[in-house]
Amino acid sequence: MKLADFDVWARTELEAVELALERWVPTDAPAGLGLAMRYGVLDGGKRVRPLLVLAAAQAVHGNEDAAMRAA
Question: What pLDDT digit, counting tens, does each position of 10-45 carry?
């Protein structure tokens, strides 16, 4: 895989990870906990582990939904 191809793949996968996190991290937890959780998870930063999980799942033709939950 060429570097440009990897860059496109990584950006696409990371967008999917961000959308999944937006859906899965609650906002309505008590005492501001939901907001704190969202800040900690959705604040950006490195996303190497999700890329590794998704790449491994694709390499072995694994279940994409399960991989996304693990990512």
Answer: 999 999 988 888 788 777 777 778 778 777 777 766
Q: Write the CA distances from 63 to 19, 33, 46, 50, integer angstroms.
A: 18, 31, 24, 14
Range of the domain at 16: 3-70
> Which pLDDT does position 8 carry in this prediction?
95
- Secondary structure of residue 29 in the 3-state scheme: coil
| Cα separation values, 19 from 30, 41, 61, 62, Å | 23, 12, 22, 20
> Could you give the number of structural domains in the chain?
1
